[in-house]
Each structure stands twice: as structure tokens, then as C-alpha cells.
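Hi V.,

You were right to ask for the full record rather than a summary. Here it is.
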Amino acid sequence: MSATLPRTVREVRLATSPSGLPAEEHFTVVETPLPEPGPGQVLVRNRHFLVFPGLRTLIGGETDGVPLPALRSGDTLFGPAVGEVVAASPDSRLRPGDPVAHLLGWREYALLPAAECTPLGDALPDPVAHLAQGSAAYGALTRLAGVREGDVVFVAGAAGAVGSLAGQIARLLGAGKVIGSTGSPWKAERLVRELGFDAVVVRGAGSVAAQLAEVAPEGIDVLVDTVAGEDLVAAVGAARQGARFALVGALSGQLSAQGSGGSAPVEIDAFRLVVRGVSLRGYSGADHPDVEEEWTGRFGDWLRSGEITFPHSRIAGIDRAPRALQELIAGRHFGAVVVEL
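Predicted structure:
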């Protein structure tokens, strides 16, 4: 490896398993020797990685049905990252300088099999945009909900990484009215002013169902739900005939101080689902392997034309990553949260 590379590098580990929500004190930033690639491996210098709420579930250990392993005390955190290859074994298809995406974030340098890296190419104008969580939103809207011209679309959790893109995508796919929900007035204001939402209901500012009925008196045709809980109950009450619901997250349970982030129980009116002919399906990217490439192509075109934006906060430095996760769980950020190394 090049003599310009450091001898030691830093990574974020889970220091202790919390009994409730993870906080900054449950993590530690440690130095470790710089690894060297073996056969079929590459060493990637990470430039950015995503802080995502699903870590709460992995840390809580309730991973039944989740395609990612639980995190135990002493484990290094992981998640989507982008960077460039700095060293590769001679048999690797990747060479130094190649920009790639992978799932070993939360560290300055990642050693992993070349087969687990995705070359970035030039589909997106900014490599950081590869950390956008729009694929789930796009897949839910095109494969499950099938947005039609003029539809009234309700995005639950509209200020998060998925929801902030879902509202924009729905509009580009022909929605006639886009309504969001969020947990704070300042986020609601930004959703309308910056992302073009027609209206936003605010959890904690009165009944979500009553607010939704006021801003969508004609009802809703489509739900993209990242929250569940009260938002899902309200959406069922507002469903029009033949409404299509796509569930892409359950943050009301994942980010609850009770439990371990692996369940989100909610009581909904099944009779309403039956008489209104409502379809309710969960979205999994693994069930739709064609979505990622399609989304990346359209996302790149929309970004270049200015028809869509990637709302995100950039946090500088790996030392601030644990606090960024705590702030994300507390709802202090708008859009995605990205750590810049």
C-alpha cells in the first residue's frame, strides 16, 4: 500500500448496549491499525456515510426478518457509505481511485470484498446523492401504490430521509395534491416552502386525523408511510375508495423509548379497509431488484434538471457521528443525515 496512507484509522463502535434509546455515551470512537487487502479485497477511503434510524433496531437486537445483523457491544457500526478505492489486491476488478458505494460506513477506511462494492459511475451529479433513500420511496410509489394523475398523496414522516423525497417524487409522477406529516412546525414550514408540499399536519398539534380531514376533505388515494402509529390510523380513516397504502417504515415503534425498535403495534379499522377496498402492502427493496437502477437514472435526470432536491444535513467529522445519531432519533434534523469525513 501507498506510504501516504495512515498507519491507524478511526471507527465508531457500540461501547455498551442501551436499555432504551441509544445516546452519545453508548458509543466510542477508537483507533485501529489500517488493514491491508487480501485476495479479492479492496481498501476504501470513506468520504461520506449515512446515519439512519434503522440502527436503533440493530442495536436493540430485534432483527427477526431484518436482512442485517444485530449490533452487540464492541461491534463497529455499519451502513451506506461512499468513497474511493485506495488499495486493491491484484485480482480485484477495482483499481485505486475508483469511486464506490458500500455498506461499511462508520469508519474512515473500509476493508471489504470487491464484490460488495458498487462502482458509482456518473449517473448522479454528486457522489453524496448515492446515499439518498429515495429508492424505497420511488419503489413504493411506482410498484405498490401506482400513483395516478391527480391523486391525493399522503406522506407520513415527510421530513425524514425517505419522506422528503417521496413527496417530491409523487408530484413528479403526477399527484394532484401532496400532504405530509411531521413532528414539528419548523419542519412543516420547510416542507411547504422548500419541497412543494400542499399542506402538512403536525403530530402533537392536535389530532392527526382531524388535521388530515381538514386539509384533505375529499380523502386520500395514496399513502407512503414511514411512521405507522397515529399517522396510519388517520390515513385509514381518510382513505378513498380503492386507496393504495405502501408501508416503508415504522418509526413510531423503531424510535420509541419503549421496546427495542423491532415492532410498531397499531390498531386500525379493518372494516374501513374492507368497505373502501384499500390495499395495504409493505415495501421491501429485495422484492423489487429492478427499482434501484431505474431510480438512479431518473434521480440523476431530475437532479440535473432541478426538478428534485436531496434534502440532507452534513455533519463534519467521525467524532460527531454518535451525536448525529442521537439527534436523528430526537428528530432534530431535516431530510437525511450524512457524516462527512
